[in-house]
Amino acid sequence: MLFRSLDAFELIAPEDRERAAEAFLEMLGGAESVGTEYIALRKDGTTLPILLYSSVIDRGGRPAGLRTVVIDITDRKQAEQALRKSEERLRNVFDSSLDQVYRLDLRTGAYDYVSPASKQVMGYTPEEYMALGIQQATNLVHPDDQGILAENIVRLLTPSAEPFARTVEFRVKHKDLGYRWVSDYRSVVYDDQGTQVAVVGSLRDITDRKEAEEGLRRSEEYYRSLIEKASDVTLIVDSDMTVRYVSPSVERTFGYEPAELVGQSAMSFVDPDDVEQAMGQFAQLLQSGGVFEQQEFRVRHADGTWRIAEAVASNLLNHPVVEGIVVNFHDVTERKHAEEKVQYLYEQEKDLRHQVEAEMKRRVEFARALAHELKTPLTSVLASSDLLAAELRDEPLQGLARNIRQGALNLNDRIDELLDLARGEVGMLELKLEAIDISKLLREIADGMVPLASKRDQSLELALPLSLPPVWADATRVQQIVTNLLNNALKFTPVGGTIKLTARRRGSAVVVEVRDTGHGIRKDQQDLLFEPYRRLQNGPSAGLGLGLALCKTLVELHGGRIWVKSTVGKGATFGFSLPLEPANRQPKGAHSNRKQWKVLMIEDDEERSEERRGGKEGRSRWSPEH
Q1: Would you call 490 helix, strand, or coil by DSSP?
Q2: What per-residue confidence (pLDDT) applies to 429?
C-alpha cells in the first residue's frame, strides 16, 4: 500500500525509476537527504532533467511519506553540455597543435594536462611528461638558462602593473636529441576568488630558428669583418653622390676617418681632371642600372697627394635594404708604377734582344764567310794531297803527302764544327726521333772504339742484358753521346786499364753507363764538368772542353738525365737515361719540330781521329748480364 500511494514514480522516466525507488527507500530508512538528478516525463511524453530534494514525513516517530521538491535543471544541463563541447573543441585544438600545451596546477605542483605534441617537442609522451612533475621538468633546463627561467616565473606570479615578456626562450634537454631551443608562452589561471590556481603554457621548438639566427649572425659578422678588414674601401652613396657609408679601411688606404667622408660628395675627392669621366660613368649607371666595369680615377689622399684608385660600382638603389649605389675601390698606385717600370724594362729588353739577334746573325754570317774562305783553298789542298799520295811511291815523300792529307782533313773537321756550333747558337737543328734498338747501337759503337783501346793496351768491355726495349731517340745523337763518353774514359784511363759500357732498363727509361778505372774526379769538380769550356785541372790540356756540355744538352733534349759518380783513386762512372718508345708515338719517320742545338762528336785528339777514320780493326768483348 505504501508504494501504491507513490504515484510520483510515474513521473520518472522508466530508465531512472529503479534508481529513484532505491533512493526513496534509503531516505525512508533514515539516509541523509541530497539532491539527485533524474529524467522526468512531461504530460506530453517529452523528457526533462530534474533535481529532486526529498525529506521524510514523520508521524509519531514513524515515516509516513516523503516530502519532495522538484527543480527543472534544463538550462543548467544545456550550459554544462555547451561547456563540455567547448572544452572538447579546445582539447582537440591543443591535441592537434604542433606546440606542446600544458597546464600546471600551482596547488599540487603537478601537470594535469600535456598535449600530444610533447613527443615531438621534448621526446616524452604526455603521460611521461606529466609524471616528471615541476621539479624534474625544471632540471631538464640548461644550467645557463635556469636563472632566466626562474626570473620569468617570479615575475609571472607577482602581480605588477608593469608589462613584461610572457614568452621566454631557453634550452631544454630533449629525451633523445640533447639540448634544444624552445620558446615558452605562459599565463596564469585564477579562480572565482582571484586566487592563482594554475599556469598554462605553450612550448615551441625553435632550434631551427635559433640556428638560422646564429648562422645569420655569423654571416653578418663575417662579411662585416671582411668589409672592415679588407684593403678595398666600400662606399655607399645616394643618387646625388652623397656619401652615406664608408668602410673603416678608408683610413688605412687613404688616411681619412670614415666620419670625415659621410655626408660629403664623393666627387669632392676626385681629381678635377677625372671628374667628367667619373660623372659620365655615374650617370650611365643611374640610367641603365647594373654594374660598371673597372674604372681608374685619381683620388686625393688625406695627406694631399693624389693616388690612383680602381673602382667598381653596383646600382642597388632599388634594393630594399641597401637603397644606394655601392662602390668598391682600392689603391693601385704602386701597381701602376710597377707596370710602367715593367713596360720600360720590356722596351729595354726588346731593344737588347734585337741587338743580340743582330749580333748572332752577324756571327753566323761571319762563320759562313770564314768557312767559305777557308774551305776554298782547302779544297785544292785536299785534292792535291790525294793526287800526291796516289802518285808517290817512295818514302819519305809518300809519308809527307799522307801528313798533308791528314792535316787538311783535320782542318776541314774543325771548320765544320765551328760552322755547326754557330748554327746551334741560333737554334737551327732538330732531333730526328724514332724507335731504335739500343743494344745493337751500343755493340756497333763499342766495335768502332776497340782499335783505340787496343792501341793503348786498354780493355773495352760491353755488358748488356739479353734484351732491351726500344728507346725513342735520335740514333746519330745517341752515338755522339756514347762515343764522347768512351773517348773521355779512354783519355783518362791509364795504360792497361779497363773501360766498361753497360745498359739496363729502369722504369720507363734505359740507363747507359760508362765506367773507367782512371784516377777519379774530385767532388768540387764534378758539378762543373757539364759546363761549356770546362776541363779537369789534372787532365789532358787538348780540346775545347765542349764534349760533356754537348752530351748534357743532347740527353736533356731527349727528355733524359746525365750524371757522374766518382771517388778519387777509384775511377769514374758517367751515365745517362733515354726514354722508352712511347705507346702513342708519332708515325715512323716523324721528328721533333723544335729547333735545338746541333751537337757534334768533337774529337781534338789527332791520334783518335785517325783511328776513327780507318785505323786498326778489332772487336769489343761482350758479355750478357742476366
Answers
A1: helix
A2: 58
- Predicted local confidence at residue 596, as pLDDT: 41
Q: What is the pLDDT of residues 565-604, one digit of tens each?
A: 999 989 999 999 999 977 555 444 444 444 443 333 334 3
Beta strands in 226-290 (DSSP E): 233-237, 243-246
**Is residue 502 helix, strand or coil?**
strand
| CA dihedral of 39, 42, 47, 49, whole degrees rounded to 10 | -40
Q: Which helix (H) or strand (E) holds 579?
A: strand 572-579
Rounded Cα–Cα distance for residues 426 and 420 (Å) = 10
- CA atoms of 486 and 265, how far apart (whole Å): 82
In the Cβ-directed half-sphere of 537, how many Cα atoms lie within 13 Å? 7
Q: Residue 185 CB: number of other CB atoms within 10 A?
A: 15
148 beta partners: none
First to last CA, the chain: 139
For strands 459-465 and 621-625, give the pairing. parallel
Residue stretches of the chain with pLDDT short of 70: 1-8, 33, 86-87, 89-97, 160-165, 226-229, 413-429, 532-546, 583-626
Amino acid at position 329, single letter: F
Q: Which residues contact 282 (CB under 8 A, 6 or more apart)?
A: 241, 313, 325
Residue the block writes with cell 757539364: 530
Name the nearest CA neighbour of 72 among 96, 116, 100, 42: 42
The answer to whether 253 touches 331, Cβ cutoff 8 Å, is: yes
Secondary structure of 285-354 in HEC code, one letter for each residue: HHHHCCEEEEEEEEEECCCCCEEEEEEEEEEECCCCCCCEEEEEEEECHHHHHHHHHHHHHHHHHHHHHH
State the Cα angle at 323 between 299 and 320, rounded to 5°.
Answer: 150
Give this prediction's pTM. Answer: 0.41
Tell me how far the alpha carbon of residue 365 is from its chain's centroid.
55
